[in-house]
Design goal:
Blueprint lengths: L6 H27 L5 E3 L6 H15 L21 H10 L3 H27 L6 H13 L4 H4 L18 H6 L1 H18 L3 H14 L1 H25 L6 H33 L1 H9 L7 H25 L1 H18 L13 H16 L4 H12 L1 H13 L8 E3 H13 L5 E2 L3 H10 L3 E2 L10 H11 L6 H10 L2 E3 L1
Parallel strand pairs: 3-4, 3-5
Antiparallel strand pairs: 1-2
Helix pairs in contact: 1-4, 1-5, 1-17, 2-3, 2-19, 3-4, 4-5, 4-8, 5-15, 8-9, 8-10, 9-10, 9-11, 10-11, 10-14, 11-12, 13-14, 13-15, 14-15
Length: about 475
């Protein structure tokens, strides 16, 4: 059972959530105020190419679409039921680019607040005292690993700087749909732990509408935990005839209910990406490989060291919850390095549970040293977030692409939006193509790595198109084959 949360504690949690989300807003306001008559803010500070792709998806929704089509590929497409989050958000925002960017960040703020309050509730199942939950909430919201320490060593980009699933702040700063998915994921896992399979299945169904891969990870954790619970229960009550079968049946029944309720969209998505030729290529190109294990160790090592004594406390006081965390931790390496293109997604949500157990160790098992260990833990966990913010703050003041776009280019986009038929294909440089579907109803011939089918081949073709020595017949062939109407 969760520890009782008083109204005063909820107020403190809400204050922390509001301050964290205000912190994420500040660099965007700086960028907005940095605009000039000749340079306009795109609306994004990190991963601008992905930000433009989300606005392009919202534009499809604003124009009436319920099925998603790749806005960076000119191949004929029938559309699939994915990215419903952004299609619906676009319907709420309307067709104007400024309104869509505003709605995007409003959703980011709203779901960020909800996520942090949901996290506070999730933490109450692990941590009985408010100071523990308060510390854990701060770490979940703002914590990172030792990336700030290893980044200068030229050993690869630390995970907290590019993998929103691994921690939380990057997600809160940039990605509203993943924040919403994590909210529902935590609620689904909690419902399972409280023996409420219907509500667990319903929450995971919501996750499937946003990010179906997260559901697969949840199924694995829930099924393995259910099996471990049945086994431990049967061993603990040896001698009772039929006990193992009864416990196994009850565990299987709950898992089946959860899976069946949350499976439809997952199954549909899998089939769509296998059967639709355009989506199949996109899926193959959308490679999100997990980092080297040493990078995850650098990211999570401090918390893992604290979580070991914390897990011992949890095993003594809440054995089922301890099994759940242990099963999740043991499954994680298998999921992270599974032979799938988007393997790094499977770490989603684990950071919250890890923080909870680490704080339990920090404040209970290691209580005599907490006056030293708590500040030390914060001192090594917060700098990565500070580095991210500092980078965004610096970018918010430098008037250059892709964060800022020239007003002349936006004037061309305005003309296209007013005059070009929707879903016409436009040809331009890769960077121009990335922004094109975000500001106009056009499809870009190239403009986004994963979402441009055969991106490398097309980039070479576009480069030749703009070379003076290229024969006119070759240019005309590209325009015809690519269904290109505007250059």
């Amino acid at each position: 059972m969760a520890a009782q949360i008083t109204l005063r504690e909820w107020r403190w949690a809400a204050l922390v959530a509001a301050l964290v989300m205000a912190l994420t807003v500040a660099p965007y306001l700086v960028a907005y105020n940095s605009q000039t008559a000749t340079w306009r803010f795109s609306g994004f500070l990190i991963a601008v190419d992905d930000g433009n792709s989300y606005i392009a998806k919202m534009g499809q929704g604003a124009r009436g679409a319920w099925l998603f089509r790749l806005p960076y590929s000119s191949e004929p497409q029938s559309g699939v039921l994915v990215y419903s989050f952004y299609l619906l958000l676009g319907k709420l925002a309307g067709p104007e680019h400024g309104a869509q960017v505003f709605a995007y960040h409003a959703a980011r703020l709203l779901f960020g607040l909800v996520f942090l309050l949901t996290t506070f509730y999730f933490l109450s199942h692990f941590l009985p005292h408010f100071p523990q939950r308060f510390l854990a909430l701060v770490l979940v919201a703002l914590g990172g690993g030792l990336g700030w320490l290893i980044a200068p060593l030229d050993v690869g980009l630390p995970v907290e700087f590019y993998s929103p699933e691994a921690f939380s702040f990057l997600m809160l700063f940039v990605l509203p749909h993943l924040v919403a998915a994590r909210c529902l994921l935590l609620l689904g896992l909690l419902a399972y732990l409280r023996d409420r399979p219907f509500w667990s299945g319903l929450a995971l169904f919501g996750v499937s509408l946003i990010q179906p891969l997260y559901v697969l990870a949840a199924w694995a954790v829930i099924a393995a935990t259910a099996g471990a619970d049945a086994l431990v229960g049967a061993i603990g009550e040896r001698g009772k005839e039929g006990n193992w079968g009864k416990r196994l049946w009850e565990a299987a029944r709950q898992v089946v209910v959860i899976v069946l309720m949350s499976a439809p969209v997952v199954a549909y998505t899998a089939l769509a990406f296998m059967l639709d030729p355009v989506m199949r290529v996109w899926s193959a190109q959308n490679v999100l490989a997990s980092a080297h294990p040493l990078h995850y160790l650098a990211g999570y090592g401090v918390l893992l060291a604290l979580a070991v004594p914390g897990w011992r406390v949890l095993r003594r006081e809440r054995p089922r919850l301890a099994r759940f965390v242990l099963v999740w931790a043991l499954l994680l390496p298998l999921m992270l390095y599974a032979p799938v293109a988007t393997q790094r997604r499977f770490i989603e949500g684990f950071y919250v549970a890890l923080v909870a157990v680490a704080v339990l160790g920090l404040t209970t098992a290691l209580a005599r040293w907490r006056r030293v260990l708590v500040p030390l833990t914060l001192a090594v966990s917060l700098p990565s977030t500070a580095v991210l913010l500092a980078g965004a703050w610096g970018g918010a003041q430098q008037l250059r692409p892709p964060i800022f776009l020239p007003a002349d280019q936006l004037a061309v986009f305005d003309w296209l939006r007013a005059n070009a038929p929707p879903d016409s294909v436009g040809l331009g440089a890769f960077e121009t193509g990335n922004a094109l579907p975000a500001y106009t109803p056009l499809i870009a011939y190239i403009g986004h790595g994963p979402e441009t089918v055969r991106a490398a081949e097309k980039q070479a073709q576009v480069a030749r198109f703009y070379q003076a020595a290229t024969p006119e017949a070759e240019r005309l062939q590209l325009l015809a084959e690519g269904r290109i109407a505007y250059v």
